[in-house]
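Tutorial handout. Part one gives the primary structure; part two gives the three-dimensional structure as tokens.
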Amino acid sequence: MLLLTISTLVAACGGQEEATPVAGKQPAPQAGFITVDERPFTLVNELSGRTTPYQVAEVRPQVTGIITKRLFDEGQTVEAGQALYQLDDKLYRAALDSAKADVANARANLESAELTAKRYEKLINTGAVSRQMLDEARATRNAGNAQLAAAEAAVATVQINLDYTTIDAPISGRIGRSAVTAGALVTANQTTSLVTIRQLDPIYVDLTQSYDDLQALRAAMASGELETLGEDRAAVTLAMQNGEVYAHKGTLQFSEYSVDEATGSVTLRALFPNPDGTLLPGLFVRARLPQGQRANAILVPQKSIAREPNGQATALVIGENDTVEKRNVTTRKAVGNQWLVSDGLKAGDRLIVDGLQKIRAGGPVSPVDIAAEQASTPPANTTTPTSDAKRG
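Part two.
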């Protein structure tokens, strides 16, 4: 009986040794990877800015007078040349009548001087008048011409002042709140404006961009790293404060040629249609500005890029014999949840994006193609079986 028990224990121990795996032969950890590819990419900068009117006119009087009427409704759209205020014009009409009378007087004096000069010119050969008398008659005629011209100029000046008693809109646009009412005395060239008109269609959006970013962009274009966009792709889009995208696209007008000393930035100005008056002056917006395109760009998930303590960006790729290689990479810009990589990766690299915690550089891995795995996974069946099917 004892021998039988010992034999059974020995047999059991032998079977357990056969079932135990050999030490050091653990399977390689799985590493999910994607295959790096190159694709065209448009570099879009999102810049903050504010809206400013296309034109602004502060309306001021050009003559002195009492306002008798306001001829517009506040907040409405006015057209260039539309009458806004009427001043009391009685003094200016009287001045115009006086100036016209001076013209008539000057014309009568000139007519008399011309007749005298012509008469003396006929008599000079007979000796009835002296040469001096003829010269004086001609001088009087010339003085009459000058006096008539001065009188006519005075009429034109008074007529202009009379016209200025009706204050017109210099531009078309939305008119604001009037600073004066009927009965107010206004003076020529006063510093306080009567009302302000703003043209809001189209409307400007002034954007700010770092000067260093602008220089880097120009350098990239000069080196051929970025290509200049065609006109059809250079439209500027606008994001409102509530996150909605403005319905109309704008165009970039110019870049400022000076740097703000306080912020180190330059101003870019874009022009947007504003037919519905959605954009008002002073509104804070964010504009997406296409500034260049890269023909062969590499975009990778942000989770696949790590940072060393010194700030160096690194990535892990699956190299020969399915071993892990550590690469130093250069990231240019965050694009959503991806990095734009300019150096360190190339098309065809197997970039590890899954299982990064279980692997190390130089170690073996079991590659798993994420794209192929997702393509082969059938969609989840969310249909709930009926009670009859359950019973069946």
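Part three, for discussion. The longest helix spans residues 90-123. The domain at 62-87+165-192 is CATH 2.40.50.100 (OB fold (Dihydrolipoamide Acetyltransferase, E2P)).
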